[in-house]
Amino acid sequence: MTLLISDDPSCLRDVLAVDLKRRGITPTAPAPAPAPAPAPAPAPAPAPAPAPVSAPALEMVCAYSNRSRAPQLKRWSSEDVT
Q: pLDDT tens track of the chain, all 82 residues?
């Protein structure tokens, strides 16, 4: 038994071929290289940033919210929003 330590693939291939011949095994052609993996799908485009809410629209939403809830809720104005 021979122990071969080498990083050279051609050297390893030659030693294996000699060993196979000695055992009476006929080496076959090397297996084809595996097909490359398919490219990953592109990432989806990021969602667009939401449009800023105008102060009058914010006041209308808050006023509607105040009408639909208890009367003690404060009505927000554009000055309250930072």
A: 455 566 666 666 777 777 778 888 776 666 677 778 788 878 888 887 776 656 665 555 555 554 555 555 556 666 666 5
Residue range of the domain that includes 69: 52-82
Instruction: Give a yes or no: residue 66 inside a domain.
Output: yes
Q: Is the pTM for the entire model greater than 0.85?
A: no
Q: What is the amino acid identity at position 73?
A: L
d(CA 40, CA 30): 29
CB 62 within 8 A of CB 75: yes
Let me know if residue 70 belongs to a domain: yes
Q: Looking at the 3D structure of the chain, how many domains does it have?
A: 1
Residue 18 maps to a domain: no
In whole angstroms, give the CA distance from residue 21 to residue 15: 10
